[in-house]
Design a protein that fits this description.
The protein is mainly β. A hairpin with a 2-residue loop joins strand 25 and strand 26. It holds the Pfam family PCMD.
């Protein structure tokens, strides 16, 4: 079941109301897992929920045969197997959530994974994932393999929130984050700034920058506060010194921004867009609880150890591949705690965007960034 939260938000905005003659409150028709809670001592980071696929990242050596995750679900809904039921997660388990009114259900695939963050990304590995209802998703998802050969999905994006803007008939290539088969070596990731259309203009969110990042994206949160919807970071047990790779970039010709609550378009390439590419290394626990960065604190959270960000003067337009090497710069004078590093006490995120101010719905339509052969350079720690 696809519940379009954006649609319901828009109904409220334009003032559509339901008939007052309905005396009894309708039963809830939603059937969602909102949160999964696993044992803190085995988790390496917060569980990742992507539509109907849920991944719980746990420590190497965790006994997967006896796990009993707890689920927070939509009010009034039920879940089967029941929350806190002990199951064997050597293989993925499936849960069905049924809405309060009994008319809708959603099947979730829950996987416990010991995969670690890879250090090399050539963006040749991508797929259209099949959800637990055997339905194809609408866009590509990138995957990779860690040093132990375990398949993992480190990259995420905001394509799920863009679904309403493009409609049912869109192809995976119509989304802001997709693939290019004209990479430096085979495929590359392709990020393009797109118009969000009529409803996006109503919400004063007229563009969606193509973006990809290591972390999670909360679609529901995106409707109320998009900066809080990005959950940045995944555990990383190495000390990063630089990120390297190759890029191509072209600014779009019509720059779009919101000024005094009005959507303003400036055509003719009078304002040149810029892309952004950066990485952040940070301590991922505060008072024993897992944390992530978001759009409000990604550069100034007190847990940040170092940042690698492309110099704006080097984020140039080019129709040929340009090599980049961006060093990590320590910003808080923090030293690395080796024991904490070995026990997954640090996280890393990498963020790429076709418009540097895309977080604020500001950028040029069709600005396009291609990235290939991305690599995390790191120090070997004994």
């Amino acid at each position: 079941m696809r519940i379009n939260y954006l649609f319901f938000t828009l109904l409220a905005i334009v003032g559509i109301t339901f008939s007052s003659c309905i005396k009894d409150e309708a039963l809830n028709a939603e059937a969602d897992i909102l949160k999964i809670i696993a044992t803190d001592s085995i988790q390496r980071t917060s569980p990742k929920i992507e539509n109907t696929n849920i991944t719980v990242y746990v420590n190497t050596g965790t006994d997967l045969t006896k796990q009993a995750p707890e689920f927070i679900i939509t009010d009034g809904a039920t879940i089967s197997p029941a929350s806190k039921t002990e199951l064997d997660f050597t293989d993925s388990q499936f849960y069905t959530v049924t809405s309060q009114d009994g008319k809708w259900s959603k099947k979730y695939k829950v996987t416990y994974s010991t995969a670690k963050l890879p250090t090399k990304y050539n963006f040749d590995n991508y797929e259209i994932r099949i959800n637990s209802d055997d339905e194809e998703e609408k866009y590509f998802t990138f995957f990779d393999y860690d040093e132990a050969g375990i398949k993992t999905y480190p990259w995420t994006n905001a394509n799920a929130a863009f679904y309403f803007s493009v409609g049912e008939d869109a192809t995976p290539y119509d989304y802001p984050t997709t693939i290019s088969k004209e990479g430096y070596d085979k495929s590359a990731i392709k990020l393009t700034t797109k118009s969000t259309g009529f409803f996006g203009n109503i919400l004063k969110k007229p563009i969606a920058a193509g973006s990809s990042f290591i972390g999670q994206f909360d679609v529901q949160q995106a409707l109320s506060n998009s900066l809080l919807a990005i959950h940045l970071g995944a555990p990383f047990d190495k000390v990063p010194t630089a990120i390297t790779g190759k890029f191509k970039y072209e600014s779009g010709s019509t720059f779009v921004e919101v000024i005094n609550k009005r959507v303003i378009e400036t055509p003719g390439k009078k304002i040149i867009d810029k892309f952004d590419l950066y990485a952040v290394f940070f301590e991922n626990k505060t008072e024993g609880k897992n944390i992530y960065l978001d759009g409000t604190n990604k550069f100034d959270h007190p847990n940040i150890v170092s940042i690698a960000r492309i110099d704006p003067s080097k984020a140039i337009e080019t129709d040929s591949w340009i090599d980049f090497k961006i060093p990590f710069v320590n910003i808080n004078g923090k030293s690395i705690n080796i024991q904490k590093l070995k026990s997954d006490g640090y996280s890393l995120t990498i963020v790429m965007s076709s418009s540097v101010d895309g977080d604020f719905f500001k950028g040029a339509l069709e600005s396009t960034l291609l990235v290939d052969d991305l690599e995390i350079i790191y120090e070997k720690v004994k």
